[in-house]
From TrEMBL:
<dbReference type="InterPro" id="IPR006268">
    <property type="entry name" value="DAHP_syn_2"/>
</dbReference>
<keyword id="KW-0808">Transferase</keyword>
<dbReference type="InterPro" id="IPR013785">
    <property type="entry name" value="Aldolase_TIM"/>
</dbReference>
<dbReference type="Pfam" id="PF01817">
    <property type="entry name" value="CM_2"/>
</dbReference>
<dbReference type="InterPro" id="IPR002701">
    <property type="entry name" value="CM_II_prokaryot"/>
</dbReference>
<protein>
    <submittedName>
        <fullName>Protein AroA(G)</fullName>
    </submittedName>
</protein>
<dbReference type="InterPro" id="IPR006218">
    <property type="entry name" value="DAHP1/KDSA"/>
</dbReference>
<dbReference type="InterPro" id="IPR010954">
    <property type="entry name" value="Chorismate_mutase_GmP-bac"/>
</dbReference>
<dbReference type="Pfam" id="PF00793">
    <property type="entry name" value="DAHP_synth_1"/>
</dbReference>
<dbReference type="InterPro" id="IPR052899">
    <property type="entry name" value="Class-I_DAHP_synthase"/>
</dbReference>
<feature type="domain" description="Chorismate mutase">
    <location>
        <begin position="1"/>
        <end position="90"/>
    </location>
</feature>
<dbReference type="InterPro" id="IPR036979">
    <property type="entry name" value="CM_dom_sf"/>
</dbReference>
Length: 358
């Protein structure tokens, strides 16, 4: 026994490795099947009591030479990767996932395409303030060939003393001005009860960053036939954002557009931190169209062009920007809105950058 050569011992270890590999693969297959059973039964994937029980049994049966801590460590790692396996097979089943639908979702509204082989632009004021304000922006959009007008009627403001928006009157103005200039209209809805009337006035319902996980609102939007523009939450992970989209899609409304609008970070030079890596990641993971709102992402006017170019280069399907005829007088987001000449220049530079698919 003591005379086995190193080579022989290595060969034997290789064999044991092979057996271990087969055993952990067999175990993985069982774990995956268990994940499906748990899914069907609505049982949580992670069961700490069961995990403790398995570890106790293993430690009790441990013949050595590993000590109990080593056995726990090795098996905890096996349990951890097994959990990931169950999590991944769960993710595969999301309707918004590429694993469920490989090809890009292309949304078409009144002949305008969002996603696919064409880049898209949406612009307009932060808030709808008046007919004249909106008409000035609408006219510029029409002249530049930008197809969608944005404008908030229900404004989720940090302070209750700030302008809260014109409400339904604002939605009516959005429809009126969009129709006058042959544009599409998008506006934020903050209350599930308003989704119904929004359909009368809007081509796209926006769900804002602050409401990304307002599940009742997401469910109501999912019941609607109106396409939904879903902003990423202020501190939402990709996983949370995708699941928010899943709320809408799983209720039957498959027309969802995702919008990266920056996330909270410690940096103060920008209002939010534009998470550019979110763009290729979400495009990789999901078939839904993705836009980047450069105005809310930066909170500034001076770096909109490079950020828009970066967004398109990273694979975004389009860009959102805030435009106001007289930004210093704006009732919300006065600092970040560009005026109409600035908008014309910005849009032309984006369009002619070679990154904007015409
Ligand atoms: C908006 O687009 O009007 C808005 C409020 O943006 P966000 O929800 O991204 O803050
Ligand atoms: Mn705004």
């Amino acid at each position: 026994m003591g005379h086995r050569t190193l080579e022989q011992l290595r060969t034997m270890v290789d064999e044991v490795n092979g057996q271990l590999l087969k055993l952990i693969s067999d175990r993985a297959a069982l774990v995956k099947e268990m994940g499906e059973v748990k899914e069907r039964q609505g049982v949580p994937k992670f069961d700490p009591a069961r995990e403790k029980e398995m570890l106790d049994v293993l430690v009790a049966a441990n013949p050595g030479p590993f000590d109990a801590a080593a056995i726990r460590h090795i098996f905890k790692e096996i349990f951890k990767v097994s959990m990931e396996l169950q999590g991944q097979s769960h993710r595969k089943q999301l309707l918004v996932s590429r694993k469920k639908q490989a090809e890009d979702t292309v949304i078409e509204i009144k002949g305008v395409q969002i996603g696919g082989n064409r880049s898209f632009m949406v612009a307009g004021p932060c808030s709808v303030e008046s007919r004249e304000q909106l008409r000035e922006v609408g006219r510029a959009l029409k002249e530049e060939g930008v197809p969608m007008l944005r404008g908030g009627a229900f404004k989720p403001r940090t302070s209750p003393y700030d302008f809260q928006g014109l409400g339904v009157k604002g939605l009516k103005l959005m429809r009126e001005v969009a129709d006058e200039f042959g544009l599409l209209a998008v506006s934020e809805i903050v209350d599930p009860a308003t989704i119904g009337i929004a359909a009368d006035y809007l081509d796209v319902i926006q769900i804002g960053a602050r409401n990304m996980q307002n599940f009742e609102l997401l469910k109501a939007a999912g019941e609607s036939k109106v396409p939904v523009l879903l902003k990423r939450g202020l501190a939402a992970t990709m996983e949370e954002w995708l699941h928010a989209a899943e709320y809408v899609v799983s209720r039957g409304n498959t027309q969802v557009i995702l919008v990266e609008r920056g996330i909270r970070s410690y940096e103060k030079w920008t209002r939010n931190t534009l998470d550019i890596s979110a763009v290729p990641l979400i495009k990789q993971e999901s078939h839904l169209p993705v836009l980047v709102d450069v105005s809310h992402a930066t909170g500034r006017k001076d770096i909109l062009l490079p950020c828009a170019k970066a967004a398109l280069a990273a694979g975004a399907d389009g860009v959102m920007v805030e435009v106001h005829p007289n930004p210093p007088t704006a009732l919300s987001d006065a600092d970040q809105q560009i005026d109409i000449p600035q908008f014309r220049k910005l849009y032309r530079e984006i369009r002619d950058s070679g990154l904007f698919k015409l």
